[in-house]
Amino acid sequence: MKTKNTTKMIAAAAVAFLTLASPASLKAQTTKVKNIVIVHGAFADASGWEAVYKILVNDGYKVTLVQNPTSSLENDVAATNFALERQDGPAVLVGHSWGGTVITQAGNSNKVSSLVYVAAFIPDAGESTLDLVQTVKEQPKGILPPDDKGNVYLAKSTFRETFASGESIEKSNFMFDSQIPLTVKAFTDKVTIAAWKNKPVYAVKPSNDQTINMGLEDTMNKRANAKVTHINGGHTLFMNQAKAVAAVIEAAANGK
């Protein structure tokens, strides 16, 4: 026979269970990813992501922009890992262009919940960025031969056409004069573990990428089983299509 105290205890437990199982409580238990870490590509720094940054921050995300040196895969992964270590929870890791190679390696961190490739390289283990570039016959225009220090730059004559399409002449000129070279070492460094094999993958494919071969982008996206979003624009479309690119990053954060 149950005592009054036992009955009260059972009732209290039932109330507690119903409270925990309420829609509001269940929603609180499935907290969305709120940390975003962005890795820029070659020939530009993280400041080009300012428009996307503002949208994400306004939507409540904590955004970290990695100023990776584009000097080697090891160095850029180290810079990315430093940023990931500072996160207070899981993070969406975003990479543009060469940054895609970086996040493929750095994305193995247990802090990374998903990967977003924006007009980016997606190498497999044992592949370098150069290996991918050489799989297609049509090579991008305007990449100059390495200088005596092993640095690779983009040519002025084709810079706006291939890299800064959609930007004004003044903006393109500024981007050209502030470009950060990619080293031969970075081009030839090989990924050892491909994070896209065990993390959800999202990809943004521009409609007119004149820097990375678009057929190659299709091949890489398919191999990585990426959820692809097609957006009108060129290689640096995150600058002039910031809202659309930010929407893909937020979809990754929400697991959509």
What does this structure look like?
This protein is α/β, with parallel strands linked by helices and 256 residues long. It has one domain (35-253): Alpha/Beta hydrolase fold, catalytic domain (Rossmann fold, 3-Layer(aba) Sandwich), CATH 3.40.50.1820. The chain has twelve helices and eight strands. It has helices at residues 4-20, 23-29, 50-58, 73-85, 98-106, 129-133, 156-162, 169-177, 184-188, 214-223, 237-240, 242-253; strands at 35-39, 62-66, 91-96, 112-118, 151-152, 182-183, 201-206, 227-231. A six-stranded parallel β-sheet has the order 2-1-3-4-7-8, sandwiched between helices. Strands 5-6 form a two-stranded antiparallel sheet. Helix 3 (50-58) crosses helix 12 (242-253) and helix 4 (73-85) packs across helix 5 (98-106). The longest helix has 17 residues, at 4-20. The termini are far apart. The model is unreliable at 6-30 (pLDDT under 50).
